[in-house]
UniProtKB/TrEMBL annotation:
It comes from Agrococcus jenensis. It comes from the Bacteria. The lineage of its organism: Bacteria, Bacillati, Actinomycetota, Actinomycetes, Micrococcales. GO terms for molecular function: magnesium ion binding; NAD binding; oxidoreductase activity, acting on the CH-OH group of donors, NAD or NADP as acceptor. PANTHER family: D-MALATE DEHYDROGENASE [DECARBOXYLATING]. This is Tartrate dehydrogenase/decarboxylase/D-malate dehydrogenase.
């Protein structure tokens, strides 16, 4: 029996609603296979913060090191600053475990109408740099409360960091159309972005079968809504990749479907799988959150753990459910979170 130990961090808000549903769906997906998932649920998040003054215990990273993957719902609560939730949990996990790739596939489904006119077919993979760039702790505030108050925030781009994210994106592109778009802003950000462009071009020049197009982020945002079909794989810095992936996910119809994998490709540390969406306090507690983003993230986790066949079967099952219109209100349906999970489980069993 192939046993994988999974750290489960349901987190906050709708994370607490979509996580149990996704866990049940994954259990159904592995039925009949020689695989066992051993869940290690941790109560970390904003409730834990209110009791302990921190999002997770000091030995959390050590606790998770011994597990094979991390399955995360969402963190964030209106009463706790996003700086605490993000820098107290998500960012330390990504950095301590060197999860330098944030992989975000986005595609349209025939049952889900795009927010864009003409309902274009979208099938894009965004490869976002996940541990450096614009999201840095270097900087500070000065002269607070005076008219001279100032804030400084330093971006950090390293050759090593740009090379490795580009190499990963090149491999993704080689497995698809071979077309790679690099998101840049070298006309306005004149130190880091020209460096990004140079290193990306060097790495692509050493690779076979990949055609590189460097596009300014503003123009790329416009292109992503005007002609998303013209884009296949995007490599982007931490900030640009974050914004673009929400943009493209929104264009598909709902952010509630989109998954994301925080990968340590060398497998020296556990990788983390989560939906793109946050804790959605506006709908939390109503049982109507779309669980597909969490379920799809679970499929990516199974693929990473070496179970391509199970992952593909699960993707086919939730695709069928989406195409039949068995969906939550964000997609125009009337099913609850639990009902969508049950529909996916029923579909998995029907296909067995
Ligand atoms: P959000 O993604 O939580 O919500 C944005 C909008 O999309 C809301 O109207 C929400 O109702 C809707 N939505 C999101 N997921 C949905 C789902 N599964 N089904 C149906 N509708 C869904 O982003 P927002 O409101 O900017 O952030 C809320 C909190 O989440 C903040 O504290 C933020 O920092 C945090 N956050 C956490 C993330 C994470 O844990 N990785 C990522 C993004 C935000
Ligand atoms: Mg985001």
């Amino acid at each position: 029996m192939n046993t994988h130990v999974i750290t489960v961090l349901a987190g906050d808000g709708i994370g607490l609603e979509v996580m149990p549903v996704a866990m049940e769906v994954l259990e159904a997906a592995i039925e009949g296979h020689d695989v066992r998932l051993e869940w290690r649920e941790q109560p970390w998040g904003s409730d834990y913060y209110r009791q302990h003054g921190r999002m997770m215990p000091t030995d959390a990273i050590t606790t998770m090191t011994a597990t094979d993957a991390i399955f995360l719902g969402a963190v964030g609560h209106p009463d706790v600053s996003d700086v605490e939730t993000l820098w107290g949990m998500l960012i330390p996990i990504r950095r301590e475990f060197d999860q330098y790739v944030n992989l975000r596939p986005v595609r349209s489904f025939s049952g889900v109408r795009s927010s864009l006119a003409g309902d274009p077919e979208i099938d894009v993979v965004i490869v976002r740099e996940n541990v450096e760039g614009e999201y840095s702790a270097v900087g500070g505030r000065s002269y607070q409360g005076t008219p001279f108050e100032a804030a400084h925030q330093q971006s950090i781009f390293t050759r090593h960091g740009i090379e490795r994210i580009t190499r990963f994106a090149v491999e993704v592109a080689q497995g698809r159309s071979g077309r790679l778009v690099s998101a840049t802003k070298s006309n306005g950000i004149i130190h880091t972005m020209p460096f990004w462009d140079e290193v990306v071009a060097e790495v692509v020049a050493q690779s076979d079968g990949v055609q590189l197009e460097s596009v300014l982020i503003d123009a790329l945002a416009a292109r992503a809504v005007r002609s998303p079909q013209s884009i296949d794989v995007i490599v982007a810095s931490n900030l640009f990749g974050d914004i673009l992936s929400d943009l493209v996910a929104g264009a598909v119809g709902s952010i509630g479907i989109a998954p994301s994998a925080n990968l340590n490709p060398e497998r020296e540390h556990p990788s983390m799988f989560e939906p793109v969406h946050g804790s959605a306090p506006d709908i939390a507690g109503r049982g109507i959150a779309n669980p597909i983003g969490q379920i799809w993230a679970g499929a990516m986790m199974l693929r990473h753990l070496g179970h391509d066949d199970i992952a593909t079967g699960l993707e086919e099952a939730f695709t069928a459910v989406l195409e039949r219109g068995e969906v939550t209100p964000d997609l125009g349906g009337s099913l609850s979170t639990v009902e969508v999970g049950a529909a996916v489980i029923a579909e998995l069993r029907r296909r067995r």
